[in-house]
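Whiteboard transcription, Tuesday session. T.W. wrote the C-alpha cells on the left side:
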C-alpha cells in the first residue's frame, strides 16, 4: 500500500508516493506514464514523516535552493536497466545538462559494453517515476535541444531555467 501526498508547485500539482519507508514516486499532474490507480487516492491533511520531508525538499528546491538528494530514501520501481539509468541521472549536478548519447556512453562503460542505444536510455529516462528529485529534466537531445519530457517540454524548460540553464 502506498501513502500519497498532493503538492501544489509552480509547475502544477505534484503527486508524491511512499512505499515501505521510501519515496517511490513523484509525478506531475497530467504527465505521461502517470500511475492511474494513484489518481483516485484521497487527499489527506496529514502525511507520513517521509512525505513531509520530501515536500520540504520541494519547498526548498522551488525557493531556489539546491537541497541534497542523498538524505531522501528513494525506491523507484523498474527493471535493473532502468535503475542503472536513474542512478546516472542522480549524478547530473544542478544547473548542468547532459545528453541521451552521453548517458548511453557512460552506462555502456559501467556495464563493460562497447556501446549502448541512446534510444533505450531515453526510454528509461522517460519512465523515471520520481521526477525532479531524480533529475530527468536535465537530459537534452544530442544537439542540446529540449526533447522528450513526460511532464511536457514547457515544464522541462521551466525546471532548467529555474536551475540557471538557459535553452536557446
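and on the right, the sequence the group agreed on:
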Amino acid at each position: 500500500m502506498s501513502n500519497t501526498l498532493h503538492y501544489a508547485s509552480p509547475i502544477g500539482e505534484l503527486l508524491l508516493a511512499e512505499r515501505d519507508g521510501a519515496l517511490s514516486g513523484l509525478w506531475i499532474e497530467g504527465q505521461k506514464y502517470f500511475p492511474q490507480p494513484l489518481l483516485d487516492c484521497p487527499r489527506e491533511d496529514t502525511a507520513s514523516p517521509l512525505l513531509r520531508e520530501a515536500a520540504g525538499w520541494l519547498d526548498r528546491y522551488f525557493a531556489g535552493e539546491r537541497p541534497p538528494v542523498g538524505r531522501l530514501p528513494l525506491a523507484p520501481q523498474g527493471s535493473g536497466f532502468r535503475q542503472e539509468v536513474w542512478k546516472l541521472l542522480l549524478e547530473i549536478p544542478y544547473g548542468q545538462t547532459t545528453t541521451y548519447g552521453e548517458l548511453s556512453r557512460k552506462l555502456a562503460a559501467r556495464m563493460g559494453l562497447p556501446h549502448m542505444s541512446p534510444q533505450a536510455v531515453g526510454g528509461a529516462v522517460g519512465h523515471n517515476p520520481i521526477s525532479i528529485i531524480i533529475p530527468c529534466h536535465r537530459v537534452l537531445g544530442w544537439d542540446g535541444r529540449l526533447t522528450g519530457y513526460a511532464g511536457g517540454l514547457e515544464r522541462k524548460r521551466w525546471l532548467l531555467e529555474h536551475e540557471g540553464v538557459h535553452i536557446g
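Someone added at the bottom: The mean pLDDT is 90.
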